[in-house]
Amino acid sequence: MNEVLRDAGGATSGARIPVDGPQEMRRLGRALAALLGPGDLVLLTGELGAGKTTLTRGIGEGLGVRGAVTSPTFVIARVHPPLGDGPPLVHVDAYRLHGGLEEMEDLDLDVTLPESVVVVEWGEGRVEELSEDRLHVAIHRTLGGAGDGPAPAAGDAPEVRTVTLIGVGERWADVDLAGLVPDRLG
Ligand SMILES: Nc1ncnc2c1ncn2[C@@H]1O[C@H](COP(=O)(O)OP(=O)(O)OP(=O)(O)O)[C@@H](O)[C@H]1O
Ligand SMILES: [Mg+2]
């Protein structure tokens, strides 16, 4: 079951969603894409290999953009143009974005951020100033239900992840993040 998170002020909304395997992570991305529009900023956090790019791949599929989303290893940002009339997806790997926001603005993308959906891996603490409204998505590995144990060693533990979504700002105040259900893969 998804857990609803809400702060007293009401300007922050959130949810905690269990995700069982990479396929389901993609399907969650597809479902999330249905909530996203031009100007939206999504910040992804989670340790190496947590599933940030996998989630972004699903977002790209859900938005209907050109090109499969892959790890932007050799570039800081990649623009995926829309195939239909939706927004482009700008996928940023901020891991090496040491100059922070200015460097991001200097990337000389051929789309503007207000017309795009911008998804930033490792974005927390680096690009918040791009928008007052933003969606923080944190991916944690969990040992089948036992919340706070050490991260399981690769290969020998249940591949369950927990995705925590926190919407910051008015944009997200009334969005039903807890209602997100991983989409079917078509
Ligand atoms: N929910 C999940 N459960 C199990 N495995 C997953 C899940 N999501 C993704 N994976 C797998 O974990 C591996 C790493 O995923 P991915 O590249 O998306 O991580 P990442 O967070 O982007 O890593 P990096 O920090 O290197 O950018 C992939 O093999 C992917 O299939
Ligand atoms: Mg990645």
UniProtKB/TrEMBL annotation:
GO terms for molecular function: ATP binding; metal ion binding. It is found in: Cytoplasm. Signal peptide: none annotated. GO terms for cellular component: cytoplasm. SUPFAM superfamilies: P-loop containing nucleoside triphosphate hydrolases. Keywords: ATP-binding, Cytoplasm, Magnesium, Metal-binding, Nucleotide-binding, tRNA processing. Pfam families: TsaE. Residues 1-22 are annotated as: Disordered. One of its GO terms (biological process) is tRNA threonylcarbamoyladenosine modification. Its main location: cytoplasm. Belongs to the TsaE family. PANTHER family: TRNA THREONYLCARBAMOYLADENOSINE BIOSYNTHESIS PROTEIN TSAE. Required for the formation of a threonylcarbamoyl group on adenosine at position 37 (t(6)A37) in tRNAs that read codons beginning with adenine. Is involved in the transfer of the threonylcarbamoyl moiety of threonylcarbamoyl-AMP (TC-AMP) to the N6 group of A37, together with TsaD and TsaB. TsaE seems to play an indirect role in the t(6)A biosynthesis pathway, possibly in regulating the core enzymatic function of TsaD. This is tRNA threonylcarbamoyladenosine biosynthesis protein TsaE. It comes from Streptomyces aidingensis. The lineage of its organism: Bacteria, Bacillati, Actinomycetota, Actinomycetes, Kitasatosporales.
